[in-house]
Amino acid sequence: MSPRDAIAAPVPDDDFQSLVGILPEPLQAAVRDLPSGEILEVVMDLGRVPEARLTGRVVRLSGSAVTRKDLEHVLAQVGTVSEDNRAGIERTLHRVSAIRNRQGKVVGLTLRVGRAIYGTIDMLKDLIGTGLNILLLGRPGVGKTTKLREVARVLSDDLGKRVMVVDTSNEIGGDGDIPHPGIGGARRMQVSRPDRQHDVMIEAVENHMPEAIIVDEIGTSAEASAARTIAERGVQLVATAHGNTLENLVLNPTLSDLVGGVHTVTLSDEEARRRRTQKTISERRAPPTFDVVVEMVTRDEVLVHRDTAQSVDRLLAGENVGGERRQLVEGQVEVKEEPEAVAPLPSRPARPGRTAPTGEAPSREGAPTPRREPGLRQGTTRVYAHAASRDLLERVLRDIGADARVVGRLENADVVLTLRSRANDPKLRKVSERTGARVLAIKRNSSSEMRRVLRDIFLIAEGVDEDQVREAVAEAEHAIQRVLSESVVVPLAPRPPRLRKLQHRLVSRYHLETVSHGSEPQRHLIIYPLGALVDMPQGRELDVEEEGAGGLA
């Protein structure tokens, strides 16, 4: 059977029937009518209709709502619900997770189908036999635990090693005292409470002389410390951890020790000049616990960092991390090297009629690449999150309704959003100067900070009709062009306060001066060339809506 067939193989019928058998009688027939290989989980919430979640769809199992009696029926047939609200069916990989109310009573159940699938680590088999410590990263549901179970079987059965599985929630070896055949000849140590996982990891090394230890979901500093202790004793460690990418892990203060940890170093003036960096930089603190880091992109695609130390050093230096991208295509593993340096992209032609970029004189031959201005260019603006949360950025862009999308490469970005502490990274400066991307710095990784900065840069006036915003921006653009090219004073049409603030933001990018004249509803902006004598109206007061807009209100 090819690896592709193995991955698509359904749960053995007798194993799947063990899960179906604990459901209330009316639901059993409904679940049996569904293709067993596509079922991911069955959800039962008190007072709601029960559902089966399949690959790509959800199916209602009954027209009647779940009762407390239905929940008690399922709980009576599974193992003891532990402190982490999980239980299982003995000698299977199925998991039953409980949701409780404030009084501790169960009001919902998630019955997750567990699968022992062979052939899932063909992409990583050459790494498993090296004896190196390997860390798997990936989002929930991408198959980390499934691969970990297969690693235990391959190490013990195919390579003949003494393997110990530290099984916190019985997800790897299944419920009950006898482990599931999916882990092969590996032995299994169960963990009485989730907060004791680090103790059991050390106990496994001290008491049972393993050559390899398998651990699922390292998530605390105590577990990270235990992992380093195991690695220093010469035992191969294969584990999973919370985080999607290597960068996520480096930025996680709790788990960064797994890849060497990060600390801040202050350089001398001479060293800073030699390195061409700022004086305060981030560096790796120690050798990484894990020699190899594997980012699981999908079930059939991974990105392998063969030298964790080198990858982390490149990441902290602001360079492209590189790596080895492996994909399973029609049963064959395809390997492609990720570039460590990316060729520069050709600059995009400027929009007709545009004038000088933000804060620069009109472009001349040999001048820097003009900055790309969001809100002024046609088409969707491409935004890159540098040392900032990509998921949070995508959510904020959706919330404010900006015509933008998040891209995965710095070189493709029109706008780069970064933390203030990382704004002077050498690579970021170099790429932004070459491509003309605008760099926005935020003080902290929060939605309010992102919203504040992005709302200004995308010229968004909340609560104002889009056509009015477009008209106000177009008028200001045309006026800016005239002021820059003809050095004349240009008055704008009267606008409501929010639209005047938006025009102020736009004009301030060109370091021109603006003054608000008149009284509502005839109050309007006048744009002056740089250095011109500004006519300040007598008794003038700053508009509340226009404070902080970047020009003279």
UniProtKB/TrEMBL annotation:
CDD domains: AAA (cd00009). This is AAA family ATPase. Residues 332-382 are annotated as: Disordered. Keywords: ATP-binding, Nucleotide-binding. Gene3D superfamilies: P-loop containing nucleotide triphosphate hydrolases (3.40.50.300), R3H-like domain (3.30.1370.50). It comes from Archangium minus. InterPro entries: AAA+_ATPase, P-loop_NTPase, PTPase_dom, R3H_dom, R3H_dom_sf, Spore_III_AA_AAA+_ATPase. Residues 466-531 form the R3H domain. Coiled coil: none annotated. It comes from the Bacteria.
